[in-house]
Amino acid sequence: MMDRRQFVRVAAALGSATVMARGARAAGSAPGVYPDRIVFGQTIGFDSVWGGPYRSYTDGLLAYFNHVNAKGGVNGRRLVVKRREDNYVPEKTVANVQAFLQDDVFGLVCMAGTGNTLAALPLIEQHKLPVVGTFTGAPDVRRDSAPVFHTRGGYVDEVMRMVQHATTVGLKRVAVVYQDNAFGKVNAEAAGNAARKYGAEIVAMVSHSVQGDDIPAVVARLQAARAQTTLLFTAPQSVADILIAHQSRHGPLPYPWILSVTSAKQVFEKAAELSRGVGVTQIMPNPASRVVPLAREFQDVLDKAGVGDNRTYEAVEGFLTAKVVVDGLLACGANPTRELFISKLEAFGKREFGGLRVHYERNRHSGPDYVEVAMIGNGGRIIS
């Protein structure tokens, strides 16, 4: 049985090999549409501080695409993904999108990164290049004028739930640690707004390096702030480093929180039992649930593909993204075009995907609004 890293490599290699082995698309057909396949592009930072969650996200996407391909594809066409590494660097994302525009892809799937997506939006809008799924909930990315269809809730909703929950149980002195980039800054701003709304006080607003090489200074500022709860808007490795460093110098970090993108699984793998009690906002149903139909289908498909150990929230998100793509293509019929695909997605209205609702209209591309509060428990188990 192949592990999930092998699964991603093999699926990507098969996709690239298929594209190279077959001839050019038929005259008059849409970009990326061939008689036997539809080719999508993906720009993402596997080789970055977010590599773990991004791989899980992609696993879920590929698992469902491969599941559909095994049944004959969509209207007889296999779904192929060509991936380009961007290292979580916005300039590389832009270069990758430019390359994809010359490389005959139908659209993009499962992008990632707030700054990365923001940097690419002008190109995406200019060329009306459909994008389904981007691993960010930043409000500036959620422009309904762009052909970007989101498959996750927004960060503002997550941060609001964090602060609301904390103040409800009497934790009103709030510290914020945020990456010094677009992702971190937008969430720091949301935290300030949430604090004002729910009567909390921001006692420390701590910017830190994207590379995560300033942990001692971050921990010193947190200790000086004497916060009752800490919101950590950063990568899994940095969260783990902060938990470990704070424990060694000052004892447990008081009531820490992470966003859904900061993979709870990755945090547990890096910080072990020190992660127990970390609060998490989740924008997908629990991947271990047998009650929610989407989660149950996700488990069954991944088990069949031999990657059933990747039962992560990020993989569920990628899986949902793939289902949205497939439904949009099915609605296009035998001759999909980018313009038709965009219009069919905008015609979804409120559509249920196994217990999770996705809402698209012409002037609403924000997708789900699902947010729940959970916690990392013993052995890394998510308690919701």
Quick recap:
The chain has helices spanning 4-21, 51-70, 90-102, 114-126, 155-168, 182-198, 215-225, 236-250, 264-271, 293-305, 313-332, 338-346, and strands at residues 37-44, 78-85, 107-112, 131-135, 148-149, 173-179, 201-208, 229-233, 256-258, 279-282, 349-353, 356-361, 364-367, 372-376, 382-383. It has 384 residues and is an alpha/beta fold.
Topology of this protein?
Layout: H1 4-21, E1 37-44, H2 51-70, E2 78-85, H3 90-102, E3 107-112, H4 114-126, E4 131-135, E5 148-149, H5 155-168, E6 173-179, H6 182-198, E7 201-208, H7 215-225, E8 229-233, H8 236-250, E9 256-258, H9 264-271, E10 279-282, H10 293-305, H11 313-332, H12 338-346, E11 349-353, E12 356-361, E13 364-367, E14 372-376, E15 382-383
Parallel strand pairs: 1-2, 1-3, 3-4, 4-5, 6-7, 6-8, 8-9, 9-10
Antiparallel strand pairs: 10-14, 11-12, 12-13, 14-15
Mean pLDDT: 92
Give the helices and strands as they follow along the chain. Answer: HEHEHEHEEHEHEHEHEHEHHHEEEEE
Low-confidence stretches: 4-10, 12-22
The count of helical stretches stands at 12
- Neighbour order of strands in the largest sheet: 7-6-8-9-10-14-15
Range of strand content: 15-25%
Structural class: alpha/beta
Distance between the termini: 31 Å
What CATH first level of the largest domain would be assigned?
A: Alpha Beta
Give a count of the beta strands, DSSP E runs of length 2 or more.
Answer: 15
Looking at CATH, the homologous superfamily of the largest domain is Response regulator
- The radius of gyration over CA amounts to 21 Å
* CATH architecture assignment name of the largest domain: 3-Layer(aba) Sandwich
